[in-house]
């Protein structure tokens, strides 16, 4: 693959047709979802799925989320109990991932689940991922479209910078609306906080974070910028790049008005800008630990964890 890759094509029929042709040929392509950009490949093609791991440089014990067009397709892949079906009916399409027992004969490559007996499924709401699913007619495995351990991409340019030379195509449909990865639920518990809060879902809150891998892939250091990050900063220390929130102004702000939804949509973009700045370190103002602020603080804690 040439170092000028990936090509970036604006969302539209031509871009979707080209992406679908690449996926049919066993390649992976980056496509926006309502949460972050995903790196999609045919989930039934083990060589194509291996290509996702290779492009990301991702440890193979970290299983991938499978995206499907609707609940009917999901039910052919995994076993839903009444509670899971109820969540799917209320929140799909949308930023909710359900971890469920995988059906024997589902056709999903075992590399997708990293050998687990469960599978993470979601029906995305974004027009680009929906169109790609419709044209491909295949379930698509798609982790966030960034090199493993790097910040998740909320814009096509983030993908191109992180995976330069490693993938052929990015479909560009602007900034992703939610800006944070989907909420992951398993057995009525939130495994990963996200745009839908436990309260939105009517579930008990996320288990307290620990430094150990509680679910596969829940690595403590995950969404990491390339320089030290200090949390709960009320002012700049030395040459830090300060990301503000509410009344704390900085070089940048998550939300000048203290709006948590706006802060979530801007978080990764702000971290990318901080990372690209000349400053040797990053500081972030305190973000209230309520509503989607729980997911924002989860991502910030992981970004701050020393590698
Ligand atoms: O919003 C999202 O969810 C984005 C977009 C592209 O859809 N995708 C995403 O995928 O964030 P990824 O691969 O970066 O995160 C997948 C998470 C990992 O933490 C992984 O460990 C967890 O899902 N996961 C996948 N399968 C699992 C399983 N069977 N049991 C527990 N956790 C699982
Ligand atoms: Mg990721």
Give an overview in words.
This protein is of the alpha/beta class and 307 residues long. It folds into two domains: 7-201, DHBP synthase (Alpha-Beta Complex), CATH 3.90.870.10; 229-304, no CATH class. Helices cover 31% and strands 17% of the residues. It is built from ten helices and 14 strands. The chain has helices spanning 13-24, 46-56, 71-77, 82-91, 110-113, 127-136, 156-162, 198-201, 260-276, 293-304; strands at 7-10, 29-32, 37-42, 65-67, 96-101, 118-122, 140-141, 169-172, 183-186, 189-192, 229-230, 241-244, 252-253, 282-284. Strands 2-3-7-4-6-5-9-10 form an eight-stranded mixed beta sheet, sandwiched between helices. Strands 11-14-12-13 form a four-stranded parallel beta sheet, covered by helices on one side. It has a two-stranded parallel sheet with strand order 1-8. Strand 9 (183-186) and strand 10 (189-192) form a beta hairpin. The longest helix has 17 residues, at 260-276. The model is unreliable at 208-214 (pLDDT under 50). Bound molecules: threonylcarbamoyladenylate (TXA) and magnesium ion. Threonylcarbamoyladenylate is lined by residues 33, 35-36, 38, 62-65, 97, 99, 113, 116, 118-120, 142-144, 181-182, 184, 191-192, 215-218.
């Amino acid at each position: 693959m040439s170092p000028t890759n990936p090509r970036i094509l604006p969302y539209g029929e031509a871009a979707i047709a080209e992406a679908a042709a690449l996926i049919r040929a066993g390649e992976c392509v980056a496509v926006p979802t309502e949460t972050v950009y995903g790196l999609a490949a045919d989930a039934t093609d083990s060589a194509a799925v291996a290509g996702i791991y290779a492009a990301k440089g991702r440890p193979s014990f970290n299983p991938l989320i499978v995206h499907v067009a609707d609940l009917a397709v999901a039910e052919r892949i995994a076993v839903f109990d009444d509670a899971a079906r109820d969540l799917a009916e209320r929140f799909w399409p949308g930023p909710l991932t359900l971890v469920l027992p995988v059906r024997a004969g589902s056709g999903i490559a075992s590399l997708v689940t990293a050998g687990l007996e469960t599978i993470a499924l979601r029906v995305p709401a974004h027009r680009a991922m929906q169109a790609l699913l419709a044209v491909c007619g295949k379930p698509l495995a798609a982790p966030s479209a960034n090199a493993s351990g790097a910040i998740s991409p909320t814009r096509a340019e983030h993908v191109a910078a992180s995976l330069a030379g490693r993938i052929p195509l990015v479909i560009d449909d602007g900034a992703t609306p939610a800006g944070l990865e989907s909420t992951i639920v398993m057995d009525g518990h939130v495994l990963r906080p996200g745009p839908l809060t436990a309260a939105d879902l009517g579930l008990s809150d996320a288990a307290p974070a620990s430094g150990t891998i509680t679910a596969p892939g829940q690595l403590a250091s995950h969404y990491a910028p390339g320089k030290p990050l200090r949390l709960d900063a009320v002012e700049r220390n030395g040459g830090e790049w300060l990301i503000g929130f509410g009344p704390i102004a900085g070089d940048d702000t998550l939300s000048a008005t203290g709006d948590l939804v706006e802060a979530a949509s801007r978080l990764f973009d702000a971290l990318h800008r901080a990372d690209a700045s000349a400053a040797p370190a990053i500081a972030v103002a305190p973000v209230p630990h309520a509503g989607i602020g729980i997911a924002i603080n989860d991502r910030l804690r992981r970004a701050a964890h020393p590698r």
